[in-house]
C-alpha cells in the first residue's frame, strides 16, 4: 500500500478467510476522508468479474497496465477489481468524503 487519503485509520486488524483453494485478506480504513476497503484474493481459476459482484454494467479501465473493472456501489461508493497476476486478485472499494474521488490513486498504490 503506497497511498491512502489522509484522515483514515485502520478500523481493526486485517481479516483472513478461506481455505486451501482460495484465501481472502480484507483490510478496512475509516475516517474524515470516508472509507476504504482492500480485498486481496489468492487462488486459482477466477477472473476480475469473479472477484466481487458489481451492480449494473461495469466500466473498463486498467491498474498498472492490467485490465480492470469499475462500478458504482449501492452504498454510494465505487469499486475497482483486477488480477494483479494469475491467481492474485485485488478489489478496492472506497466511499464518502475524498476517498471515493481518489479510488484510482488508491488502487495504483496497492502492491499485493
When the domains are counted, the total is 1
Distance between the termini: 8 Å
Approximately how much beta-strand content do the residues carry?
over 45%
Number of strands: 8
Helix segment tally:
2
The best one-word shape is: globular
Mind telling me the C-alpha Rg?
A: 13 Å
Order of helices and strands: EEEEHEEEEH
Fold and architecture overview:
The protein has helices at 48-51, 103-108, and strands at residues 8-10, 15-18, 22-31, 34-43, 59-63, 66-72, 77-85, 88-95. The chain has 112 residues and is mainly β. It has one domain (8-108). Strands 1, 2, 3, 4, 5, 6, 7 and 8 form an eight-stranded antiparallel β-sheet that branches. The longest helix has 6 residues, at 103-108. The protein is globular.
List keywords for this structure.
single chain; 112 residues; mainly beta; eight-stranded antiparallel sheet; 2 helices; 9% helix; globular
Blueprint of the fold:
Blueprint: E1 8-10, E2 15-18, E3 22-31, E4 34-43, H1 48-51, E5 59-63, E6 66-72, E7 77-85, E8 88-95, H2 103-108
Antiparallel strand pairs: 1-3, 2-3, 3-4, 4-8, 5-6, 6-7, 7-8
Summarize the structure.
Residues 49-71 are annotated as: Disordered. The chain is mainly beta and 112 residues long.
Amino acid at each position: 500500500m503506497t497511498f491512502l487519503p489522509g484522515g483514515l485509520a485502520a478500523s481493526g486488524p486485517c481479516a483472513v478467510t478461506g481455505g486451501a483453494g482460495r484465501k481472502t485478506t480484507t483490510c478496512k480504513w475509516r475516517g474524515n476522508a470516508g472509507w476504504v476497503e482492500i480485498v486481496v484474493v489468492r487462488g486459482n481459476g477466477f477472473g476480475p468479474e469473479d472477484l466481487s459482484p458489481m451492480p449494473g454494467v461495469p466500466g473498463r479501465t486498467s491498474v498498472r497496465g492490467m485490465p480492470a473493472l469499475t462500478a458504482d456501489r449501492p452504498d454510494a461508493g465505487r469499486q475497482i477489481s483486477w488480477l494483479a497476476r494469475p491467481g492474485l486478485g485485488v478489489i478496492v472499494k472506497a466511499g464518502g468524503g475524498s476517498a471515493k474521488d481518489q479510488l484510482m490513486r488508491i488502487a495504483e498504490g496497492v502492491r499485493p
